[in-house]
Amino acid sequence: MNIALRPTQDQISRWIEQYVPDKDLFFVTEMGLNRFRAFLDEVLVMPRQEFKNHAAYTQIQINNSYEIWNISTNNQFVIIAQPSWIMSLPSEFRDELFRLQIAARRGLIIPLSLITDVSMFPAEFIVEEQNKSYVILQRMMWQQLLYDCKVHTIEAYAQSWDNWKAIDAPEMLPASLRKYANSFPSESGANCLAATLYAISMNPEGQEWIIHEWIHPLTFIQSLSYANYSATTTEELQVGDVVVWVDEAGNIQHASYHIGDHLFFNKDGQTFFNPWKIIHLDELKTEWNIYQIRIYRKG
Asked: What domains does the chain contain, in order, with CATH numbers?
């Protein structure tokens, strides 16, 4: 049976606190940077290569909020600014910088089509680009919004990441997974690989912390091996199988845990907008259909 999901009020409050980082980041090309040269005395300009290796800016919440993985590599520089800087720019330069962020595919940019009451937002942060309107979220503006506006914004945007629908937890679901199934995390970081490793744990109580981790592919494959899982050539699923989706180069793009009857304990992505939920194999195949399937089974 399909059910509706919804984060708790406490989770919504935690999301609101964390979603817009303390510092504003703007991603620009060298040509774009030159346009703002007269306004750079109060900011840091960091080359993108240094940015992606900088401990202060590789934190999971910064990565998720700004959706770093989506940002075009053509943007070789990052402007790092205090929250008040953006309002110190002349309006025409502020609008231009916002449009550059839309072009860069930066996060914290919300389509106005998701918002029911546009008047909740300051006009200075609403930009039209290619016949579409967006609200650009920045730290100072976010702090000044009414709480109800923040709730509406974050709920609307969260539902663009996930449809808030799932399959009711079946009776066969282990108690350790039932605790998390069809619920949202309060913090960023937990991803599909962490959910899958926790699902195969032989000691769920002692290893519960793993479900909250941001697991990377090499760690995941090594952990499967330690748990006596190995790749199998069969296409028939068994309870306890781990299904992995890989690209043409063999890089892992997703993983999920089969609980039986083609139902999976699953998490898409590492944001707190991505719930742990029960879904059917058909939905997984539709979502990840451009990738190849590999099945891992416990020996």
From this structure: 2-161 (no CATH), 170-298 (3.90.1720)
